Amino acid sequence: MNITIFGSGYVGLVTGTCLANLGNSVTCVDVDQQRIANLQKNILPIYEPGLQELLIKNVQEKRLSFTTNATTAIQESDVIFITVGTPSDESGKANLTYIFQVAATIGKHMNSYKVIVDKSTVPVGTANQVQAIIKQEQKEKHPFDLVSNPEFLREGEAIHDFMNPDRIVIGVEAKRAEEIMIRLYKGLERTGKPIFITDIKSSEIIKYAANAFLATKISFMNQIAQLCEKVGGDVKEVAKGIGLDQRIGSRFLQAGVGYGGSCFPKDVQALTQTAQEAGIEFPLLEAVHDVNNKQKQSLLPKIQALVGDLQGKTITVLGLSFKPKTDDIRDAPSQTIIQQLLNTGAQVKAYDPIAMDVMKKYFPTIGYAESAYDAAKNADCIVIVTEWDEFRYLDLIKIKDSMKNPIIVDGRNIYDSEEAKRMGFKYIGVGRGNSEEAQ
Ligand code: NAD
């Protein structure tokens, strides 16, 4: 099939590359000329494990190309995916400007029947608006069908998730489009992955409901962690104990420094806004959001409790991306903690295996180290913000010997608190007894 993808970011590039790898002919379109010029030279705008290799392979085999020429791409395609961003506006609502721009472009240049697939995360009812814009912009009336096909990939695992999804959700009302979508995903269905066909509005809600539910799990465990910090108990033990209940499940129960990234924060807010517009109070989601914001701010008091006045102290931040295996720092807890530390007069030294270049644009004046060991030298405290694997197995004795004060504030509970204390660190994690005990 000939496929055009509007938006060459995380979702667009992964979708385009994987669909090309399944044998389709894919053109990725973007309005960002620099991004397309780089992609034409195999330079990717994002870090995603395995993506560059797969992308180059499919470019070489002539199934994948990049362009800013939307007209040709639209006219030569059977299926058009929309994968542009839907960031929050000031009120928390999803900003649909980019979606509507793409809809207008498609309408203007359409020359025959097309299936138009919305893969961006959009509020319920958006497909109807996209449909109306396309109709309004069409010079000649060509038939088309709208499909909602939300994406559930996780950054850092995106290729695997696209090729091995738990489910493929397709919201579609027209039989013709349904058959085309099933044909498109047949290759994945053959590996035992269920295609779930539903109506468009349910499909649009499924994406938000899934993300909001996962965010709720995280905020719930962070609140349990706060309780453990006051009354004792270890949130990791609690997570194991409740996770053994199959109705609850063991995944997504890690307490930490709060969720970030380009999806959960904005999607929780957007769903709250959608509910409000429908006249429904959704206090549960407001609480999920508030708990998360407080959790992002929870490291500073722990650092202060162990280090004292932070003026002039050197604090090492390990991990900048919102989670491991990505360079995405959008709404990352690291941004909150770095800003808080700077406000107290501390010197910040940071290290991340991948995300330092992106972070330099936001915090150009802090120190950036070449390794975790380099970052720890002469530090008064190390703060673990992202649980990159390489931080799990650091030589902590070497780290301790190079620090001015051996203190670890472990925002991801990656170290064994007893072992860290035996080595001579002052250590505090998240939800692992109260702070006096932890020292
Ligand atoms: P992104 O910001 O990485 O990429 C968006 C791209 O769209 C940019 O390259 C931008 O230049 C391009 N763009 C904007 N307007 C355009 C236009 N008119 N024509 C062509 N290109 C245009 O975004 P992303 O992280 O890939 O997210 C895209 C959507 O997918 C969002 O709705 C997001 O919520 C959803 N989503 C993201 C993830 C994720 O992990 N990143 C996972 C699932 C769903």
What does this structure look like?
- This protein has about 450 residues and is of the alpha/beta class.
- It has two domains: about 1-200, NAD(P)-binding Rossmann-like Domain (Rossmann fold, 3-Layer(aba) Sandwich), CATH 3.40.50.720; about 230-439, NAD(P)-binding Rossmann-like Domain (Rossmann fold, 3-Layer(aba) Sandwich).
- It contains 20 helices and 14 strands.
- The strands form two sheets. The protein has an eight-stranded mixed β-sheet, with helices on both faces. Strands 11-10-9-12-13-14 form a six-stranded parallel β-sheet.
- Helix 15 links the parallel strand 10 and strand 11.
- The longest helix has about 30 residues, at about 200-230.
- It binds nicotinamide-adenine-dinucleotide (NAD).
Tags for this entry?
14 strands; Rossmann fold; 8-stranded mixed sheet; alpha/beta; 439 residues; globular
Compose a concise summary of this entry:
The protein has 439 residues and is an alpha/beta fold. The chain contains 20 helices and 14 strands. It folds into 2 domains: 2-198, NAD(P)-binding Rossmann-like Domain (Rossmann fold), CATH 3.40.50.720; 231-439, Rossmann fold (3-Layer(aba) Sandwich), CATH 3.40.50.720.
